[in-house]
Design brief:
The complex is a heterotrimer of chains A (282), B (375) and C (285). Chain A is 80% helix and 0% strand. The longest helix of chain A has 35 residues. Chain C has 285 residues and is mostly helical. In chain C, α1 packs across α10, α4 packs across α5 and α6 packs across α7. Chain C has a two-stranded antiparallel ribbon with strand order 1-2. Chain C has a domain of 185 residues: Orthogonal Bundle (MetI-like fold), CATH 1.10.3720. The chains are: A mainly alpha (282), B alpha+beta (375), C mainly alpha (285). Chains in contact: A-C, B-C. The interface between A and C is large, with 88 and 85 residues.
Chain lengths: 282, 375, 285
């Protein structure tokens, strides 16, 4: 009797779970996949949606640009975040530690949109940076800092900081301070200790952080379009254009599948190379 | 005078898939007794207890509590309560709410009455004044008492205890052991206690059932269990024992005794089971039942002291037998009394024991492992 | 070793770096906060005196947030969406947690990986896939039951809710799974032993135990929903949520009112974030 009740309970739970993941995740993606392989009119099988992408130098360029840009920003974020994580776990006292943690979490709480907006306020032609430069006499007229690649990079690093720093903090937390001291004791200097003790220990966290940041950059929309404007040339933007502006769901689907395949492939390869487990990493 | 029976198991078997956790177990527990189920981990004792509590259903056989068949009665409707191994106190409630939990489920009792009964139960386990404490603010021993009070307040016919003393340190375990026994005597509730710790089972119980591989090996009062084990397993599991293997029955004595030849030496023992002359046997001898005399005597077994381990009230003396045709040695517990023999390492001594202090059994095949790793 | 007293060169460098990081992360937020109270219609410096106009004013040329009808209605839409998404996602989170922690079944690991999917897939792709899927169903419903039957599946309120639930439920599941894993099932058995039915035991004991995680998950779900842009952007219709409305305004330029909105958002999300943090901490204890 009890066994039956248990099983009945399991079936109820399973039903809700499958309704959610099926209707809101699996079936939509199958539909996306299906649409990407059929023609817009008629609905017969075609590769045209993909060929359209591969034959267009502009789209190819945008794709490569998005991937390369995301990679560079990821590396930049890693370089900036690592010392932050190190200071938080191994250097800072209680107060500085709390302050730094708050400083990387607070921007995340106020949402990506507001993050991008604050940088618009800072970088735009009549913005704060222009004003400061004029105030100290470096220039006499306003300068437009928005819509440059470097502006996009600043915005992306800003939104990525948390996702890189927290995993590194988590792995550095498990590094025993005495290990660093032992390395010094055995005659190591800061750089050799960093290279041989600290970085190898933090590697899993760095890897998880990099994967997350790369994915977030690749799929970013709001930061790049607000800070990059028409010059952003980001891949998500052409997906939006196909779906919403041109109302071409088939090409849009093909582009979505390309983005999805690339990011899943990327994660898979990185995980394979580093021999990590996704569910563990998360 | 016929005894009233509180719990009865009749040919109870429990299978998990192909695994037989409990194998055709039958016993009766008289009302108001302290009954222990003793067995190594994986022996099926937990499954047995969980069947009495109602968390598992027997594959076959019947369970009676208070004369009623309860096979199909869910745990919340059974007149028995359980003290869990890890206590399972509700961490989000204070002591009082934990203790009144069961009363609240029953309904029909006023709040004041519930509180009165809870305080009464807490007083019985010596926890007055801690009603408002959170569980995590209590010590291990105090938590133990709350768990007891939580069950006792419901005045169950039977209280099931799933090795709740296991997590305590040695000192606390010793004192809780006595307290539990006194508590049982005071309340008159039937206690069913499962444990793998034979010292607990022997010290507290009126009756002990030894279980191994899902089968009952022996049900007896502690002293009988200790002195007259019914099976090879009981002899080796309960208490310390010298085990001499590869013996052979050579003769019978009057009153159920046998003479066994081991390593060329003739030794006396009790036939633990049906034996015939020529049977191969193992002989078990309690270390404290062996008499040790300095020097060489004719009426005993001669050996040489190879090691003396001082242990407070007694010493454990290891004696290598001198006249055996293969290396044999016996552990002897020598009490430190006024006239205790004074021996030194290397000295020659003579060992002897009453024939019924040793037990002979057929050797058994190495334990099957089918019941290992059960919950 | 770096926490020792005294100042070494390396320690000084670390502190200097920490200060730069603080400026980089908090600077923009501080600037926006100052500008929200600056009586300068260009939403920039120089400072021209303190004003609350960007919060509350309805003179021509100056509309404060609380007098901006479109903004207020977008906030209300966002709140409605967020409340629904939170309730559904927490319920699903509890559902999934029980499924993954309490039961063992074939394909469970695969299902768990699948459940992580919505977190891994870019928000834009999630949005487009749900848009494409619902579009097809809505057309089908229109065809069978007549025009308008599939309207609730067209971009708008319900589609936004659906789209957000798809990934928010993953997060709530992870939070609640973590807590349920630390629950000793013997507590449930103890409750049953003391007279509860199975459902009573789950209700009185297990859900009570999960409560901090459920509240924490609810706050996180609310924040995620309220702030979501990427997925929502593809699914919202004529009644945009606040982030969508803000975005469409930002494409035309910056007004001081948006500074004020940002400050309000910072305050609300800051408080919610702290609460979520506090409950997570309590959860870990």
């Amino acid at each position: 009797m009890k066994t039956l009740a248990r099983n009945r309970g399991q079936w109820v739970l399973l039903t809700f779970m499958l309704l959610w993941i099926g209707l809101l995740f699996v079936l939509p993606h199958l539909k996306l996949f299906y649409l990407s392989f059929v023609s817009r009119r008629g609905g017969e099988f075609t590769l045209a949606n993909y060929l359209y992408f591969f034959h267009s130098p502009l789209y190819r360029k945008i794709f490569v640009r998005t991937a390369v840009f995301s990679t560079l920003v990821t590396l930049l974020t890693l370089v900036i975040s690592f010392p932050v994580a190190f200071i938080i776990t191994k250097v800072a006292g209680k107060h500085l530690k709390a302050m730094l943690l708050l400083a990387i979490i607070l921007p995340y709480w106020v949402s990506e949109l507001i993050q991008a907006f604050t940088w618009m306020v800072f970088f735009r032609e009549t913005g704060v940076l222009s004003y400061l430069l004029r105030a100290i006499g470096l220039t006499h007229h306003n300068i437009e800092f928005l819509y440059h690649d470097s502006t996009i990079a600043v915005g992306l690093v800003y939104t990525s900081l948390l996702f890189m720093t927290i995993p590194i903090i988590n792995s550095l937390d498990t590094l025993d301070d005495s290990l660093i001291e032992a390395a010094y004791d055995l005659g190591g200097n800061f750089w050799s200790t960093l290279r041989e003790i600290i970085i190898p220990h933090a590697a899993p966290g760095m890897m998880v952080g990099s994967i997350m940041v790369f994915m977030l950059n690749l799929g970013n929309y709001v930061t790049v379009t607000l800070l990059g404007g028409k010059n952003s040339l980001w891949f998500t933007e052409i997906i939006y254009n196909q779906f919403i502006i041109r109302f071409n769901q088939n090409k849009g689907s093909a582009f979505s599948v390309i983005l999805l395949t690339f990011s899943v492939l990327f994660v898979w390869i990185v995980l394979k190379i580093t021999k990590q487990d996704l569910s563990e990493a998360m | 005078m016929s005894q009233e029976i509180d719990v009865a198991l009749v040919h109870v078997t429990k299978k998990f898939g192909d695994l037989i956790a409990v194998n055709d177990v039958s016993f009766e527990i008289p009302k108001g007794s302290f009954f222990s189920i003793l067995g190594p981990s994986g022996s099926g004792k937990t499954t047995l207890l969980r069947m009495i509590a109602g968390f598992e259903k027997p594959t076959s056989g019947d369970i009676y509590i208070g004369g009623q068949r309860v096979n199909d009665v869910p745990p919340n409707k059974r007149p028995c309560n359980m003290v869990f191994q890890r206590l399972a106190l509700f961490p989000m409630m204070n002591v009082l709410d934990n203790v009144t939990f069961g009363l609240r489920r029953r309904g029909g009792i006023s709040k004041a009455e519930m509180e009165r009964r809870a305080k009464d139960a807490l007083a019985r386990v010596g926890l007055e004044g801690l009603e408002k404490r959170k569980i995590h603010q209590l010590s291990g021993g105090q938590q133990q008492r709350v768990a007891l009070a939580r069950s006792l307040v419901l005045e169950p016919t039977v209280l099931l205890l799933d090795e709740p003393l296991g997590s305590l340190d040695l000192k606390l375990r010793q004192s809780m052991k006595l307290e539990l026994k006194h508590l049982q005597a005071r309340t008159g509730t039937t206690f069913v206690y499962i444990t793998h710790d034979q010292t607990i089972a022997l010290a507290m119980s009126d009756t002990v059932a030894v279980i191994n591989h899902g089968r009952i090996e022996q049900i007896a009062p502690p002293e009988e269990l200790y002195r007259q084990p019914a099976t090879h397993f009981v002899a080796s599991f309960v208490g310390e024992n010298n085990k001499l293997t590869n013996g052979k029955v050579v003769a019978f004595r009057q009153g159920g005794g046998v003479d066994v030849e081991i390593g060329g030496i003739r030794m006396a023992g009790r036939a633990g089971e049906n034996l015939a002359v020529g049977d191969r046997v193992d002989l078990f001898i309690r270390p404290e039942m062996i008499t040790l005399r300095p020097g060489r005597h004719d009426d005993g077994i001669v050996g040489k002291v190879s090691e003396i381990n001082f242990d407070g009230s007694h010493s454990l003396v290891i004696v290598d037998l001198l006249e055996s045709d293969r290396p044999l040695s016996l552990n002897v517990k020598v009490q430190h009394t006024e006239n205790a023999p004074d021996v030194k390492v290397g000295e020659v001594v003579t060992l002897s024991w009453r024939w019924d202090a040793a037990n002979a059994f057929h050797p058994v095949a190495q334990p099957r492992t089918e019941a290992e790793g059960l919950p | 070793m770096f926490r020792q007293k005294g100042l070494s060169l390396s320690k000084a460098l670390f502190y200097a770096y920490a200060i730069l990081v603080l400026i980089f992360t908090l600077g923009p937020l501080v600037i926006v906060t100052i500008l929200a109270f600056n009586n300068n219609p260009s939403a920039s410096f120089p400072w021209q005196g303190f004003t609350l106009d960007w919060f509350k004013a309805s003179t021509p040329g100056r509309v404060g947030f609380f007098d901006d009808a479109r903004m207020i209605s977008a906030v209300i839409v966002s709140l409605k969406v967020a409340v629904l998404v939170t309730l559904i996602s927490v319920a699903l989170g509890v559902n999934n947690a029980f499924l993954f922690v309490r039961y063992k079944f074939i394909g469970q690991n695969f299902l768990y990986l699948l459940m992580l999917g919505p977190l891994v897939v870019p928000g834009v792709v999630l949005g487009t896939s749900i848009l494409a899927f619902s579009y097809g169903i809505a057309n089908g419903l229109d065809k069978i039951f007549g025009a308008g039957a599939g309207t609730f599946l067209r971009p708008g309120f319900w589609l936004v809710v659906a789209g957000q639930v798809s990934f928010v439920a993953t997060t709530t599941t992870l939070v609640i799974v973590a807590r349920l894993k630390r629950f000793d099932p013997a507590l449930e058995e103890a409750a049953m032993d003391l007279g509860s039915s199975r459902l009573e035991a789950v209700w009185l004991i297990t859900l009570r135990f999960l409560a901090p995680a459920m509240i924490g998950a609810a706050i996180i779900a609310f924040l995620f929903s309220f702030e979501n842009f990427n997925t929502t952007y593809f699914l919202s219709g004529s009644d945009p949520t606040m982030p969508i409305l803000l975005y469409s305004r930002l494409r035309f330029g910056i007004t001081p009112e948006i500074n004020a909105v940002s400050v309000l958002l910072m305050m609300v999300t800051g408080v919610l974030g702290f609460l979520a943090f506090a409950f997570q901490k309590d959860d870990a204890a």
